[in-house]
Structures are given as structure tokens and as C-alpha cells.
Design a protein that fits this description.
The protein is α+β, with helices and mostly antiparallel strands. The protein is built from eight helices and nine strands. Strand 2 and strand 3 form a beta hairpin. The radius of gyration is 18 Å and the shape is globular.
Length: about 300
């Protein structure tokens, strides 16, 4: 793996959406959390910053690091980590701090779905419908139903040992529960890679379909890579130090036949909104894939 970091920020901080509340309570992002000062995607960079340029393409035309991308990540407040893996060539590159562990928010639902799809459990039509709701709508009640029915606490060691989520842990002071976990962008990339490579063909196809069907308010993050992309986003207002703050993440795939695995995590400083975080990680993915950043939608 290689790390590209640079110094100044190319400005593009806009607005988009949220999902879980503190201590795991479902919460929407109220309109008043939208940033009061933004830069539109078509506007020039802030005074004194480097002008963003299109990222360089790899030899095969896939995502590639660029000065604009690494400068943008370096200038983002908080801790941002990006992992991009080419499943055809086997190459991986990363930027920011992909080893930083933060609250997982709803991204852990990808690991839950993967575990259930490859398990020996007999999944009913109702179970699969809850899985669809969990991934497509990020439904927390559906996730709770699956977690309770299939002994979710026992899945945690599997996430670490089988899927390679090395930094996955229960947040100190909390009970083992899907809303109380933390992991890194590297962890999220490993579980996505496992699901695409190891799930039976029919289950893999269903999982890919669910991730591509993420509801309109979730169309940001890895989704910004293009029409072939699919992802599981997560956004939550969480206590970690003082005061509380938003974490905003996205894990999924992009390109024909899900060629590229992409994971991006953003542990924001206090005072920033979920909408700002979702826009920031969307801009990161857009820059990585050579696409013009644009404002993304949210609730």
C-alpha cells in the first residue's frame, strides 16, 4: 500500500445527510444543521488555496491518486481515511488515515448481511426483507430484529477473524451491540472484499443489488463514483471526547463487475454537520474517480 498526503486544501465543503443518533438512537438530520457557509461545486477555490485539478488516471483508466485529491483530504478538518482496491490487478492505494478507528454507524450492516448470507441459518422471506430494509433504507429496526434473532453478539468475533476487520472493537464503556462498534476504513474495505469474493453467486448478486439500490437520501459517498457504484453509508452523532460529533462513512464498490472496492471514513470535529461530512466524502470519491464533484442530496 502507498500513502499520498499533501499540504493545502482544495475547497469544496457542501451539504448532505444523517442516520443514527447518539447511543444508537435513530435520528434525522434537521434542516438547521446545514452549513451556514458553503462553496458550490462550480465555484473557484477559497482565497489562498490550490485550485483543484482532475486526478490522473491509472494506466487502465481506473481511479488514481492526484495532488488535488490528497490536498483535499489533507485539508479536511478531522480525520479522513480512504482505501481503494482494484480487484483485477490486486493493487491497493490509500490516503489520509485509513487505520483510524471510529464509530462504525450503519456501515457495520454490511458485515451483518454478509454473515447472515453465508451462515447455515435458514433465512425466511421476512429475514431477507429485513436485510433489504437494513441495506437499502438503512432501517435500524430491521437491523435490531436480525441482530436479536441471530445472536448478533456472536458475529463480532467472526467479523474480526473471518473478514479481517482487525481494528473492530466494542466502544469502551458500551455493551456489545451493532450500534456500539468502531472500526477503520481498512476494516470496511476488507469486509467488502470478502463479500464480493466469497459469497455464493446468488447471494453476492442479491447483496450487490441491495447496495446499488440505496435510497435517494443515501446517494453520496462511494455512490459518487458513477452509475456502477453501490454502497452502505453510515452517519451518526456520537459521544467520543467532548463535545459529541458526527461520523460519516461509506463502503462499497464501483466500476464494471464491481471491480473497485472503496471505503472512506470521516471522523469529524465538533461543530460540523452530517451534511457537510457526506458532501466531503462524496467530493473525495469524485476526485479519486476523475468525476466533477457535485452537490449531493439528503433528507
Amino acid at each position: 500500500m502507498r500513502r499520498w498526503m499533501a499540504g493545502v486544501a482544495a475547497g469544496l465543503m457542501l451539504a448532505v445527510a444523517g442516520c443514527q443518533g447518539d447511543a444508537g438512537r435513530a435520528v434525522g438530520v434537521p434542516a438547521e444543521t446545514a452549513p451556514t457557509s458553503t462553496t458550490s461545486p462550480g465555484a473557484g477555490p477559497p482565497s489562498g488555496s490550490a485550485a483543484p485539478t482532475a486526478p490522473a488516471s491509472s494506466a487502465k483508466g481506473g481511479p488514481a491518486p492526484s495532488q488535488a485529491l490528497t490536498s483535499y483530504i489533507a485539508g479536511a478538518p478531522g480525520t479522513l481515511g480512504l482505501v481503494v482496491r482494484d480487484t483485477v490487478t490486486g493493487s491497493t492505494w490509500q490516503a489520509g488515515d485509513p487505520a483510524h478507528a471510529a464509530w462504525t454507524a450503519s456501515t457495520i450492516k454490511l458485515a451483518i448481511a454478509t454473515s447472515l448470507l453465508e451462515s447455515d441459518f435458514t433465512l425466511t422471506a421476512g429475514d431477507r426483507d429485513n436485510m433489504r430494509k437494513m441495506l437499502v433504507d438503512s432501517d435500524n429496526d430491521a437491523t435490531d430484529a436480525l441482530w436479536d434473532k441471530f445472536d448478533g453478539v456472536d458475529m463480532i468475533p467472526q467479523f474480526k477473524q473471518r473478514y479481517g476487520m482487525a481494528t473492530l472493537a466494542v466502544v469502551s464503556g458500551y455493551r456489545p451491540y451493532w450500534r456500539h462498534l468502531q472500526c477503520s476504513a481498512t476494516d470496511l474495505a476488507t469486509v467488502m472484499a470478502y463479500a464480493l469474493a466469497k459469497l455464493p453467486a446468488a447471494d453476492r448478486t442479491q447483496l450487490v443489488g441491495w447496495l446499488k439500490a440505496a435510497a435517494g437520501v443515501q446517494q453520496w459517498g462511494v455512490w459518487a463514483a458513477g452509475s456502477d457504484a453501490g454502497h452502505k453509508p453510515g452517519w451518526a452523532f456520537k459521544p467520543e471526547g467532548t463535545p459529541d460529533h458526527w461520523v460519516v462513512h461509506s463502503v462499497g464498490f464501483a466500476g464494471p463487475r464491481e471491480r473497485y472496492i472503496v471505503a472512506v471514513t470521516y471522523d469529524q470535529p465538533p461543530g460540523r454537520s452530517a451534511k457537510q461530512g457526506a458532501q466531503t466524502i462524496s467530493d473525495v470519491v469524485s476526485l479519486a474517480f476523475g468525476r466533477p464533484p457535485r452537490q449531493v442530496k439528503g433528507p
